[in-house]
Amino acid sequence: MSGGLRIAADQDTGVAVVTLDRPARLNAVDLPLAGQLADCWHALRFDDSVRAVVLTGAGERAFCTGIDRDADVPQPNSPYMVDDPLLRIGPKTNDLWKPVIAAVRGMACGGAFYLLGESDFVVADTTAAFFDPHTTYGMVSAYESVHMAHRMPYGEAARMALMGTAERVSARRAYEIGLVSELTGPGGAVEAAVRCAAVIASYPPEGVQGTVRALWAAQQAARAEAFALAPSLIALGNLPAQRQAELFAGRRAGGFRVR
């Protein structure tokens, strides 16, 4: 695929590497890329030669920075309906039960958590940093916070969501709290993730996929209930789009601490 997504499959190992390929935009997701991700997961469901997947971002600066601020996302004129294109970009949402390992280099923030939340585990290098900018710009962190509350201790998820752009969780801290399962040197995350994926892909796929489905089921009911509240919380809590844009335009560079 072109225009924002690359897929490279190794027939010998059974591992596919899916790369968000918009480094000039810090791998932010626009509407075409959102559609390509959904198409990618659907295609991998039917490709029996692929038994495990590594998901990463191109370049050194970011894994993914969420929704592209320049993307035109029309919204229904109703507080009961929120059209969020990122809800359709994850592998589990698209009924893919092959294991997906995220390999993170650089920033992972905001809507990146839709992808991290639907990955089975996360490998990161020491340049990785995690944060959620929503509250800084007058927005409710709803879906993102639900995903992260299932991946890290509640207090850590709450702190990250509430501190906004004032603080970034370092790769080391993310490893200490369990968000990241393996920490590598700079540039080593993809290689380490592929190594794990190759081991998993060597096992009988039925048992692997059943295990992925069972692990997801352990959290799925609570996640679904929380997601049901998200549209109304966003409609009630978000500032108008113009005011959000003003806050975003006036953001301070370098005004954060790393923890």
Automatic annotation (TrEMBL):
Annotated CDD domains: crotonase-like
Protein name stated in the entry: Enoyl-CoA hydratase/isomerase family protein
Keyword Cytoplasm set for record: no
InterPro entries in the cross-refs: ClpP/crotonase-like_dom_sf, Enoyl-CoA_hydra/iso
Keyword Lyase: yes
Alphabetical UniProt keywords: Lipid metabolism, Lyase
Phylogenetic placement of the source organism: Bacteria, Bacillati, Actinomycetota, Actinomycetes, Kitasatosporales
Record-linked Pfam families: ECH_1
Family assignment from sequence similarity: Belongs to the enoyl-CoA hydratase/isomerase family.
